[in-house]
Design goal:
The complex is a heterodimer of chains A (340) and B (357). Chain A is 34% helix and 24% strand. Chain A is of the alpha/beta class and 340 residues long. The radius of gyration of chain A is 20 Å and the shape is globular. By secondary structure, chain B is an alpha/beta fold. In chain B, the strands form 3 sheets. A 9-stranded mixed β-sheet of chain B has the order 16-15-14-13-9-12-11-10-17, with helices on one face. Chain B has a 6-stranded parallel β-sheet with strand order 5-4-3-6-7-8, with helices on both faces. The chains are: A alpha/beta (340), B alpha/beta (357). The interface between A and B is medium-sized, with 21 and 19 residues.
Chain lengths: 340, 357
C-alpha cells in the first residue's frame, strides 16, 4: 500500500547500522523516516537513542510499533533469519543485511513467510543496484561478451586480529571470508553466470586465531559448462582491491575495486552497451578497511526498496535472488569440508 | 505557532533550514555525553555545516563519524580554535570542565554551545559572565528537555499566546533511569557532575523561568538525598526544589534516578503548567500504560479539554534561531541572561539543599 511516509527501524547498532542510517536519511524525499533503533542490551538504549536521535527499544517493542513499516536487520549474521521471521510475522517489510541466513532452510522459511504474509523481503546485496555492475549485467544479457566461459573472483583483503576481537560474532561460524566479505562478489558471479552445479574447494585458517576460514580457493562449474575460480583471504596485508573478471567468446571485462580496468570486445563496433570510462589504479576500498565501503550502495538499495513498496513490485534483490549467493557460498563450504 | 479552530489548537508546521550550506560552519568537541548528538542533529537540520570533530578518545570519534560521515577529524582542539571559519563550537564535556572550555572557546572568538548543566560552581558562572562581556561571544546552553521536545515547544507557544492566562505555577517531574553500568566514572563523582539539582535540575529551572516569564527567582526550599544507592556514595538519587519567581509565580520540581526497568523509555518526564485561565500537562516521553510515544500535550481551558499528539508536528525552531542569533548577534533563541539565570538558580539550589538521606 503506497503511503507518503515509510517508517524505518534499524535492528542493531554496529558499523553497518550507520550505513542504513545514512541511506534512510538520504531517501527522506522519497518518504523514508527513521522511527526507532532496536538493540538487545537495555543499558545501551539511552546512548544509542542519543546517537541516532530516535528511541532505542527492544526488538519486541520495535516490532510492535505501528509506525514501523520496514525493519532493517543489521545484527550479527547468525541472528538474521530469526529476526527476519519475527519481523515478517509482525507484518513488517524486511531489508536484511547479507547473508540473509546461514542455511538454505532458514532462507526458504523467510521467503515462504514473506509470501504468506505479503510483506516484502529484500537482501542488501547492493552492488546489483550500482551502475557499473548493472552495466556488466546488461552487456552479458545483450550478448556483447558472447557466451561466458570463465569467471574469476579475487579477494585479497586484510582484516586485523582486532577486527575479529572487537565483536565475537565476526569469528563465529558463518562469518568466514567467503560468507562475510566474499558474498557480494559471489552474488554478482551468480547473477552474471548462473547458479553453480558443482564445486571443489580448499579452506584454511592460516593466520588468525579464528574458528572460521580466513583463506579459501575454489573452482565452480555452471550448467552450460562454463567455469569460475574464487580465491579469497583476509590475511593479505595491507589489503588489496578485489577483482571480478568475466571472459566470454565475444569479449571480457575486468573489474577492480569499484571500477573497470578493462572492457574489451572482439568487435567493439557491435557493442550494444557502452563501456564505462576505465579506472587506472583502484582504491582498496573495503579491501583494507571495512569502513572504506561507500554508502552509495545502501542509499540505492533503500531507494529501490521504497520504490518497490510504492509500485507493488519485487525489490531488486528479493529473497529468492538473495538465496542464490547463499547457496553458492554453502556449496563452496561443503566442497571445502567446512560444513556438512 | 498555534492556530485556533474553534477551541482546538494545532501547530502550524515545522521550521526549515535557515541558512544555505556553508554559511554556518561549526565544530563538535568533547563527546563525553550523548547529548552532543542531539546538539549536532539540531544544528545540522537547521542548516548548519558540521565541519570538524575533536575528542581525545578515537573510539568516540569513530562512533560519531558513523552518524556524521564526512565530518573532518581535527588533530587537536587548538586546530579548531585557530580556524577563523568556525563560528560556533558545540560541546558536551564533563560538567565540571564545561565552564573552562567555554572560556577558551570565547577567547578564540567563537560562540559556545554546551550541553546542560553549563557550570558546576557559581565561580565558573561569574567567570563566564565576565568573558561574555569582554568578548561579546555567546555562551549558549542545550536545555534539551524543553528545546528538543516538541510538546514542550508547543506548550511555550500556547503560553505566549495567553491561552491559559497568566502562569502561576510550573510543576516539573524529571525522573530518569540510572543505568549505572553504562555511565562513565565522572557521573558518580560530585565534584565532576555537580549534584542532582545542578545536573538534571537545570532543565526544570530553565522551564520554570521560561513558562512563568520570571526573570529571576528565589529558592525557597531545596533538598537532595541518596536514598537507595550506597554503592555510589557521591550520587544524589533524589532532588527537589521550590522557587518563587520575581513575578510571584510558583515553581516546584522533583528529579530522581529511580525509573524502573519496566518503563518503555528512559524517564516519564512530565510538566503541569497552571495558568489563571487553564492548564497544560505535558507527557514528554511516554503516555504511561497507554502510548509508547511521547510528545502528548493535554490542554484544559474554559472552553473544554483537548489532547494533542505532537510527534513530528512542531519541529525545533530553537536551532535555526540560534544560528541566526550567532550570525546577526541577536537573542531570539534564548537571551544570554536567561541561559545564565537558570544556571545560577540551580547552583544556588544545590548549595542550599538540605540532605534528606
Amino acid at each position: 500500500m503506497a503511503k507518503e511516509t515509510v517508517g524505518f527501524a534499524i535492528l542493531g547498532a554496529g558499523m553497518v547500522a550507520d550505513y542504513h542510517y545514512q541511506a534512510i536519511k538520504a531517501n527522506a524525499e522519497a518518504g523514508a523516516r527513521l522511527v526507532a533503533v532496536g538493540h538487545h542490551e537495555p543499558q545501551r538504549f539511552e546512548e544509542i537513542g542519543h546517537r541516532f536521535g530516535v528511541p532505542c527499544l527492544s526488538q519486541d517493542e520495535l516490532l510492535a510499533k505501528p509506525e514501523v513499516d520496514v525493519v532493517c536487520i543489521c545484527t550479527p549474521n547468525s541472528q538474521h533469519a530469526a529476526q527476519a521471521l519475527a519481523a515478517i510475522r509482525a507484518g513488517k517489510h524486511v531489508l536484511v543485511e547479507k547473508p540473509m541466513a546461514l542455511s538454505l532452510t532458514e532462507a526458504d522459511a523467510m521467503i515462504q513467510a514473506s509470501q504468506e504474509t505479503g510483506v516484502k523481503l529484500g537482501v542488501v546485496l547492493q552492488r546489483r543496484t550500482e551502475p557499473l555492475f548493472k552495466a556488466v549485467y546488461d552487456a552479458i544479457a545483450t550478448g556483447d561478451l558472447g557466451e561466458l566461459t570463465l569467471g574469476v573472483i579475487t579477494i585479497p583483503y586484510y582484516r586485523s586480529q582486532s577486527y575479529y576481537q572487537q565483536a565475537a560474532w565476526r569469528s563465529a561460524w558463518g562469518s568466514g571470508v567467503l560468507m562475510s566479505q566474499g558474498i557480494h562478489l559471489l552474488d554478482l558471479l551468480v547473477w552474471y553466470m548462473g547458479d553453480p552445479v558443482e564445486a571443489h574447494a580448499f579452506g584454511a585458517t592460516l593466520h588468525r586465531q579464528l574458528g572460521v576460514e580466513d583463506t579459501l580457493a575454489a573452482s565452480l562449474k555452471f550448467a552450460n559448462g562454463s567455469l569460475a575460480t574464487i580465491i579469497a583471504t583476509t590475511t593479505a596485508a595491507p589489503g588489496f582491491p578485489h577483482r571480478l573478471e568475466l571472459y566470454g567468446t565475444g569479449g571480457g571485462i575486468q573489474l577492480e575495486g569499484e571500477g573497470a580496468i578493462a572492457w574489451q570486445l572482439a568487435d567493439p563496433t557491435q557493442a550494444r552497451i557502452t563501456p564505462p570510462a576505465l579506472s587506472k589504479a583502484a582504491d582498496a576500498g573495503a579491501g583494507g578497511d571495512p569502513r572504506g565501503i561507500s554508502p552509495t550502495g545502501h542509499i540505492n538499495i533503500v531507494r529501490d526498496f521504497i520504490a518497490a513498496l510504492h509500485e507493488g513490485r519485487r525489490p531488486a534483490v528479493d529473497g529468492a535472488e538473495g538465496r542464490r549467493s547463499l547457496a553458492a557460498v554453502l556449496a563452496v563450504y561443503r566442497a571445502a569440508g567446512l560444513v556438512a | 505557532m498555534a492556530s485556533k479552530d474553534g477551541m482546538m489548537y494545532a501547530p502550524q508546521g515545522k521550521p526549515s533550514p535557515v541558512v544555505k550550506p556553508g554559511e554556518f560552519p561549526f565544530a563538535a568537541v568533547a563527546l563525553e555525553h550523548g547529548h552532543i548528538y542531539g546538539q549536532c542533529h539540531g544544528l545540522v537540520e537547521a542548516g548548519g555545516e558540521l565541519r570538524y570533530v575533536y575528542d581525545p578518545d578515537p573510539a568516540k570519534v569513530e562512533r560519531f563519524l558513523g552518524v556524521f560521515p564526512g565530518v573532518k577529524v581535527a588533530s587537536s582542539l587548538e586546530a579548531i580554535l585557530d580556524d577563523p571559519a568556525i563560528k560556533l563550537i558545540a560541546a558536551a564535556a564533563i560538567p565540571s570542565e564545561r565552564g573552562p572550555l567555554g572560556l577558551r572557546v570565547m577567547d578564540a572568538g567563537k560562540d559556545y554551545f554546551t550541553d546542560k548543566a553549563p557550570f558546576t560552581s557559581l565561580e565558573q558562572l561569574a567567570a563566564a559572565r565576565l568573558k561574555v562581556q569582554e568578548t561579546g561571544r555567546k555562551y549558549l546552553v542545550y536545555y534539551s528537555e524543553r528545546l528538543h521536545v516538541e510538546c514542550a515547544v508547543f506548550a511555550g507557544d500556547l503560553v505566549k499566546e495567553g491561552v491559559i492566562g497568566r502562569v502561576i505555577q510550573v510543576l516539573g517531574l524529571g525522573p530518569h533511569r540510572l543505568n549505572a553500568p553504562a555511565r562513565p566514572g565522572w557521573f558518580f563523582k560530585k565534584a565532576q557532575y555537580g549534584g542532582i539539582l545542578c545536573d538534571i535540575g537545570s532543565h526544570q529551572i530553565e522551564q520554570f523561568l521560561y513558562y512563568s516569564g520570571a526573570q529571576d527567582a528565589t529558592v525557597s526550599m531545596a533538598a537532595v538525598a541518596n536514598y537507595h544507592h550506597p554503592a555510589y556514595p557521591e550520587l544524589e538519587d533524589f532532588g527537589e526544589a521550590s522557587l518563587v519567581g520575581d513575578n510571584g509565580a510558583s515553581g516546584y520540581f522533583r528529579v530522581d534516578w529511580f525509573t524502573p526497568d519496566g518503563l518503555s523509555t528512559w524517564g516519564d518526564g512530565r510538566m503541569i503548567i497552571l495558568g489563571t485561565a487553564g492548564y497544560i500537562e505535558l507527557r514528554k516521553y511516554v503516555d504511561v500504560g497507554r502510548e509508547q510515544t511521547g510528545n502528548h500535550l493535554y490542554l484544559v481551558t474554559q472552553e473544554g479539554e483537548q489532547h494533542l499528539d505532537l510527534n513530528g508536528k512542531v519541529g525545533y525552531p530553537f536551532f535555526g534561531e540560534l544560528i541566526l542569533d550567532c550570525l546577526h548577534r541577536s537573542e531570539q533563541a534564548m537571551t544570554q541572561e536567561h541561559a545564565f539565570k537558570a544556571a545560577e538558580l540551580c547552583l544556588k539550589a544545590q548549595e542550599q539543599a538540605v540532605r534528606l538521606a
